[in-house]
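tool_call: predict_structure(chain=1)
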Amino acid sequence: MKPFQAMNRATLDDILRRVHAQTGLARRAFETLSLATSFAADLGIDGDDANELVPMLFHDYGVNVDGYDPCRYFAGEGFDWFWFSRDKNRRGNQPLTIGMLLSAIENGKWDTELLEGRVWSAEPLYRVGDVLPVAGYAIRP
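tool_result:
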């Protein structure tokens, strides 16, 4: 995968606008947002919200999702009666990160082994003075 600077910033901005529209973003989300940011652990997007948002993004960006298993990345909504009977790799314990999603969009396919095997940078994607994709948000100096 190419370094983030070569990626399409418009794609990232579009994804974040959609995330904000569907689930909202914390006031200071852009201060720490990185390629390593997890949808579930860091942004609080899990369960039904994640299972609506992520497939919609895959569809809209034409990502081949053969091999994508939402149960690897997101817990079910409410109490999951089947959690204990599921394979340990299908309990929502694996983080799905911004970097994984952007890479899948860029490559046009979901490659679980490649995406999960990568170490994603925790360097913030936005800096003080950047124009943020969601109106009313700013990064404090």
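agent: Residues 8-116 form one domain. Proceeding to next step.
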